[in-house]
Every structure is written in C-alpha cells, then in structure tokens.
Design goal:
Number of helices: 29
Low-confidence stretches: 1-34, 161-167
CATH class of the largest domain: Alpha Beta
CATH architecture of the largest domain: 3-Layer(aba) Sandwich
Number of strands: 11
Number of domains: 2
Strand content: 5-15%
Radius of gyration: 25 Å
CATH topology of the largest domain: Collagenase (Catalytic Domain)
Length: 692
C-alpha cells in the first residue's frame, strides 16, 4: 500500500500509500466521523449504479468535491488517515519541543533533528560547506581502487517495504539484509542493482516523447545542482552523468526480471564476486561498506552486478567522480541551500509527479524527523495515541481472518492433499505484528545536533545501515518490524512468514472502534486479508512456512493456480488509466491476487462474526452492502496525470480506482447490489476469478 517491495521479498504493501511517515496532511475533504454504520455516505454518488462503476458509486461525491492540494501529487484514503497521523505527530512534537528534554534522550534527538531541519536560514548560510568534506574526498579519487572504495562508502541498506524487487538506490549497489532465499535461518546481505536518479530503467530507455522530455529536464536539473555547488563545467558534467546513468540503466534487470525470485536465489562467495564480476576492486568496496567480513552474498541481481562492475572499469574516472558528486548532493538536497532544494522539488516534485507547490517547511521537518528517527518517534506515538483496546480488537480480527482463510483452503476441491497441507501450515504459522514492535531501537550512540541538518541526515542513515548489517550471519528474527508504527500502511514479509500492521493505519477510513463489524471487516479487514493473501499470491506462494523459496505445489495444482492468475492479469490489462495507457496486469498481479483472496477471506470472517444472524440495516444499507462500500471507500484516490502515469509504469499496485473493482469477482457483491448482466462490471460466474 505507498510502493513499493526485496522487498517483493517483503512483498508488496496493503496498498500504495503516497509516501513514508511523511506522506500526508494537506487540506482536503475528510470522510465523515465515526458512526455505527461507519461508511461515509456523503462521499458516495448514488446516481451511479454500483454494477456500472463501483468506484464512482462509493467515492464519486468525494472525487467531485475534493481538490488535490497544490502541494500534493495525489490524495486518497491513505491521505485521509495520514492527515490524522500527521496531526497527532505535530501535537506530539510540539509537546517534546516545549518540554526541554534531557540531553541524550530520544526526545532530545527528536527536537535537535527537527530544529536543525527547520532552520533553513542556517542551512542557507552554511551553503555547501557541510558537504565539502564529502566533495573533497571525491575530488581526490585518483584510481579505480579508490573509486571502488568511494562507491562502497556510499552503500546503504534498503529498509523500504515499498521498494522491494524494484530497488532503485542512487548508490551503485544497495544492500538488503534478511534470510537468504534458499538458506533458511541464515541472514545474508543481498546485493541489489542501483546507480540511477530517475525512477527506473525505462525512464532512460523509453522512446516516447514524454520520457525524452523528462530526460532533458533531468539533465538540466543535474547541471543546476552542480552549478549551485560550484563544481566545474556543470553542463558538460550533466551530459556525462546522464550518459553514464543510461549505461547503468541498460545493465539493470527489468522490473519483470527483478520479480523472478528463482533468478535472485543465487548465493555468491567473495571469490565468486571477484570471478563473476571483475572490474571493481571488491576488497576496497566491501571494506568501505563495512562488509569486509561477509563471506556470502545473495546476488539478487546476478545479471546486473557483473555489468555494473564492468562499467566501473570501462567508464572514465572523471565521469564516475562527477556522478558521485551529484548523487552525494542529490540525496541530501533537502538539507542543502535553497537553490538546490528548489531545483530538487521542481524536478522530482513537479516534473516527475506534477505537484505544483512545495509543502511548508515545518511539515517537511515533522516528517523528516519521523523518517530519520523512526523508532524514537514511533514509541512516543504509540504511547500517546494507540490504546491497548484497539490493538486487542485488531488482533481478534486477524485471528478470525486467518481462520477464514484456512477454511477457504480446506474447501478447495481441486487441490492435492499435499499442497493443501503445506498451505494450511503456512497460514497457521504466520507471525502477525499489530501496532508496534516488541523491541525498540537504541539511539544512544547516535549523534544528532541542533545546528547541522546535513550531518544529522547522514548520521541517521549510517546508524540504520549499521543496524541492518549487524544482522548478517545471525538467525532471522521473525518478529522484526519493517515499518514504523507511525506509518499508514501494512506489509507482508514472505521470508519471515510475517505481517506488520502499524498503529497509524488502524484509524478511519480503515478502522473505527465505534463502527460495526460490516465496516471494519470491509475496510481494515480487507487490508488484513490482503496481507495474509500475499503469502499466497504469485510471488508469496513460492515460499514455504519457514520463508524458504521452495516449490511445495504439485505440478497440476500450480498450473491451476497460474491459470487463475492469468485470468486476473487479463482482467486488469483491460483497465485504461489514461488514454492509451493501460494497467499492466502482470506487473500488478501479486497485489490483485491479494486483493481478491483477501477480500473473500475478510467477507467470510465478517459473516462468521455475525453468529448466523443478519446485520442491521444502518444508514439505509444492509450489512453486506456496507461491507463492500467500506472496501470501495478504502480505495478512494485522486492523482495528477503525471503521478498516475508514473504509478502505472513503475508500481506493482494498480491505481485505487481499479482496485475498488475487485468486488466484481465475489459472488456476494452481486447479490448485495442486485448487479445485472447488462451492467458494465458484470462478470459471468465462470469468469469471476477465484484465487484461494
């Protein structure tokens, strides 16, 4: 749910929320306050027949009456929930700032990080000085060994559950640390492709005029950054950097290739790195990356790693030094002087995403500290805003939906007993985290000052990296969290066979303790079902209950499963997001399988919760109708065309308006709304995709 996801090893999220802990709180129409019925009737457009356009029926009023704020690329249900999350975090931070926290405490780190980030006057006065040591070190690189060490020194760990197999770090390589795909219980560093500043390889290689125009704007942006930093020949450097990144992009695996776990399940030794990927001085790179003692690596992008290494050897040293200088500045643009900050937003915010206006600095600062000190902010957040009663209620729903999913598996008549036994073992052993982790990060060694935003950002990122690589060689912790509590999102973790449901998503429009079961099972219940079902989508189904990549299917069963997936992919291929731009059914298949199976399991759990009775009619709607309306409203979304185009081209999640149409595959939806064959969304019973 925003992203992507390996993290398709962490598989995709429950939905595409617009960003990390810093995603929301713009002006916009909120949904109605909590009621027994739960659903936001004012958000609907009852003039639309649900069987013709269920998204418009459930969200049409909201879409018509809600403008996308100038400082947003899009809004939706996650935006609505994140407005409240940000309001709470603002209140929390204001209290910390007034409390004069003790030096060295988490609260002091939070206050220092916020104050330094907020103080743009100090940032502007400092100019490029905070980055001078980094730039001087790059300028002093004299040979390929030193270049290899410099590249190694930039490596950081990916911890974003939205970034998964489409990992696109600006550093030449990224590292992801978890259990190896075929080494159960053994934690390895995954080597992932990187090195580009555009969203993915197709932005460099695509031939249409829109992509060409974005490349021209990117080159101009690079030149602006290099000029603002006082670096020589900014225009020539920009051309050389873009040319180098184009070669890097050609070396990359495609998005579809990245999601082939079998290709990623390759364990390389240090000797393998030297033999299979010559060109880099691996001893220098790994030493600088603090990975000198690592003896095994998951070469997830095994095809790309040798090509990237060869480019280090073949491309001019000057081009690499310019590339390093630019990305050093680009990754720190938010804490550099105004010309660089403004240019960064003009390109990444406006050109790529269509957002006309930058958010106020205090909101950016609020979310920067929430991202940089995730556990420090997260602990304070749950202590203040997440009651034990909410956690207990959601945990009960999780158990009910797991039980419903298991019953659905038991009822499958075409599945061999051996396959069914493994599927049941997997669902029964899923570890589910609700609200927050059992253990919190220790920040006592982290240096955060009140007057150096550049150093603070670097220090926080380095501390996170060291935390991640410290896991190498140790047994996998199945209870480890990959999302902070103050994030409106959720995630499935196949290699851990685990789920995370952060506290911040457990509020409207996903969860309301004042509403009845129909609303909560249709909204947060479908999210829970979605995440459980990710363990059984086209990617998750390749992992067993221990998180090992292992084929536990009979050939006939897997063929039947793939047949259902192909039908669902074809269904989504037909959806047109923009004129001539269709949803990619194969790219989004994992999310769509999880939507169909998760909604079905949530519905079964909802009906089971009624104990054989019928839900009351509330606000003029039956319980089944409110269940499906709550689901549709959980996918409220509205995006700028630039953002929608980027989403369709790069994201494993279909846009929300199409995910709301999942209902057309469930028989009870047809009965709930008396959907007729002549209506646009009607599917004949044999065409309704049933997965699990």
């Amino acid at each position: 749910m925003n992203r992507s996801i390996l993290l398709a090893l962490l598989l995709a999220t429950a939905a595409c929320s617009p960003g990390g802990p810093g995603a929301g709180n713009q002006s916009g129409e909120a949904q109605s306050p909590g009621t027994a019925g739960g659903i936001a009737v004012a958000s609907m457009d009852k003039a639309v027949a649900p069987g013709d356009d269920f998204f418009a029926y459930t969200n049409g009023g909201w879409v018509k009456n809600t403008a996308i704020p100038q400082d947003r690329s899009g809004i939706g249900a996650f935006f609505i929930a994140d407005q409240e999350r940000e309001r709470q975090t603002r209140e929390l931070l204001d209290g910390i700032l007034k409390s004069n926290p003790a030096a060295g405490s988490n609260e002091a780190l939070i206050a220092n990080y916020y104050n330094a980030y907020l103080n743009t006057d100090a940032i502007d006065r400092a100019g490029i000085a905070p980055a001078k040591a980094d730039l001087d070190a790059i300028a002093a690189i004299a040979d390929k060994r030193q270049l290899s060490a410099a590249i190694g020194g930039t490596i950081r760990a990916d911890t974003d559950p939205l970034n998964a197999t489409n990992f696109q770090t600006e550093n030449l390589f990224g590292v992801f640390v978890t259990q190896g795909l075929a080494t159960p219980g053994e934690t390895l560093p995954y080597l992932m492709q990187g090195g580009i500043g555009l969203p993915e390889r197709e932005y460099y290689l695509g031939g249409d005029s829109k992509m060409a125009g974005l490349r021209d704007q990117y080159r101009a942006y690079i030149a602006t950054v290099m000029k603002a930093a006082g670096l020589a020949d900014p225009d020539g450097a920009a051309k050389r950097i873009l040319d180098l990144e184009t070669k890097i992009a050609r070396a990359h695996a495609t998005r579809e290739e990245s999601e082939d776990f079998a290709k990623g399940a390759q364990v390389w030794s240090r000797a393998d790195l030297e033999a299979k990927a010559p060109g880099i001085d691996w001893a220098a790179l790994l030493g600088a990356a603090q990975l000198g003692n690592a003896r095994k690596f998951e070469a997830y992008h095994a095809g790309a790693i040798p090509k990237l290494s060869a480019l280090v050897a073949s491309e001019p040293l000057q081009s690499w030094k310019e590339w390093l200088a630019f990305h050093t500045l680009n990754q720190q643009a938010s804490v550099l002087p105004k010309p660089i900050r403004d240019a960064s937003f003009a390109f990444y915010g406006t050109a790529l995403s269509g957002t006309p206006q930058q958010r106020p600095r205090d909101q950016l600062a609020l979310n920067a500290v929430s991202n940089g000190l995730q556990d420090a902010v997260g602990k304070a957040y749950v202590d203040k805003y997440f009651p034990a009663s909410a956690k207990a209620e959601v945990q009960r729903m999780v158990e009910n939906i797991k039980a419903a999913f298991a019953r659905r598996v038991q009822a499958i008549d075409w599945m061999a007993p051996s396959t069914k036994q493994e599927a049941l073992k997997k669902v029964q052993s899923i570890v589910v985290g609700v609200g927050y982790p059992d253990q919190w990060r220790d920040y006592s060694a982290l240096q955060i000052s009140a007057d150096n935003a550049y150093a603070n950002k670097k220090n926080a990122e380095l501390a996170e990296y060291r935390h991640q690589i410290a896991k190498i060689g140790k047994p996998m912790d199945r209870s480890e969290w990959w999302m902070p509590p103050q994030l409106v999102n959720a995630v499935n973790l196949p290699v851990q066979n685990a789920l995370n449901f952060p506290a911040a998503i457990l509020q409207r429009p996903f969860f309301d303790p004042q509403a009845d079961a129909a609303f909560n099972y249709g909204a947060i219940g479908s999210v829970i079902g979605h995440e459980i079902s990710h363990s059984f989508d086209n990617n998750g189904a390749l992992f067993d209950s221990t998180g090992r990549l292992r084929n536990w299917w009979t050939p006939a069963d897997f063929a039947r499963f793939q047949q259902a997936g192909a039908a669902l992919a074809a269904q989504y291929d037909a959806y047109e997001a923009l004129p001539g731009l269709h949803v990619n059914g194969k790219l989004t298949l994992g999310e769509n399988i999880a939507d169909v199976a998760g909604l079905a399991a949530a519905y079964d759990a909802y009906r089971s919760s009624l104990g054989g009775k019928e839900a009351p009619v509330l606000e003029g709607f039956t319980g089944d109708q409110r269940f499906f309306i709550a689901y549709g409203q959980a996918w409220a979304s509205k995006m700028r065309p630039e953002t929608l185009r980027q989403r369709v081209l790069t994201d494993g999640h279909a846009p929300g308006q199409f995910r709301a149409l999942t209902v057309r595959n469930l028989d009870p939806w047809y009965a709930a709304f008396a959907v007729k064959p002549e209506q646009k969304l009607f599917l004949a019973p044999e065409k309704r995709v049933k997965v699990w």
